[in-house]
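Is this the right way to post structure tokens for a design question? Let me know if I should format differently. Anyway, here goes:
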């Protein structure tokens, strides 16, 4: 089986989707809140393969909300495996991953896909690539822990996430209060302990 070369990777939020409609996107992973209406921006995109997952961007259980779970990470990895299906030698693909804001769930999904596609890459290298794709990345820590386990990274992906959070807080100190306000103070503590 030939592997599709993903030559372009994009992470964005819903409001940014129209900007990417003419950029030759071949594969889309949409992560939405349960109950959020489907996205109609994709009608303006060229032909592409799209998978939609629905769960909330939380790190602790909340009433009426769906936590990121093993089955969601398994679906992300199945999506990654599907990038090979029907691949043609020499064909370049453009992968777009989005969530509501393009900061947490989508960045966690993208680094999961990158770690799956490049298992020999170091965790530090993966997070550096992630920052190049999306400078404001703050991946959901629950998703990263589940991906670390599923990809047999032995805790290294989570350890690198701590250092990534510390890097982000050094660049964007306002994230600390923002994450605390969102109920994600535990991730700020991960940065402080790095």
């Amino acid at each position: 089986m030939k592997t599709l070369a993903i030559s372009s990777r994009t992470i964005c939020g819903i409001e940014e989707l129209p900007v990417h409609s003419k950029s030759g996107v071949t594969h889309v992973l949409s992560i939405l809140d349960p109950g959020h209406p489907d996205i109609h921006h994709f009608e303006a995109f060229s032909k592409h393969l799209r998978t939609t997952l629905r769960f909330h961007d939380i790190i602790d259980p909340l009433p009426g909300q769906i936590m990121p779970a093993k089955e969601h990470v398994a679906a992300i990895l199945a999506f990654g495996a599907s990038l090979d299906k029907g691949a043609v030698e020499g064909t370049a693909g453009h992968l777009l991953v989005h969530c509501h804001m393009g900061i947490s769930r989508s960045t966690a999904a993208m680094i999961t896909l990158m770690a799956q596609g490049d298992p020999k890459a170091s965790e530090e290298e993966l997070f550096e690539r992630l920052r190049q794709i999306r400078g404001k990345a703050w991946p959901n820590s629950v998703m990263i822990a589940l991906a670390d386990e599923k990809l047999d990274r032995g805790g290294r992906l989570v350890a690198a996430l701590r250092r990534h959070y510390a890097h982000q807080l050094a660049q964007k100190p306002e994230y600390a209060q923002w994450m605390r306000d969102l109920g994600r103070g535990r991730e700020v503590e991960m940065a402080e302990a790095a």
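Format looks fine. Someone answered above. Worth noting: The first helix runs from residue 70 to 82. The chain has one domain: 5-193.
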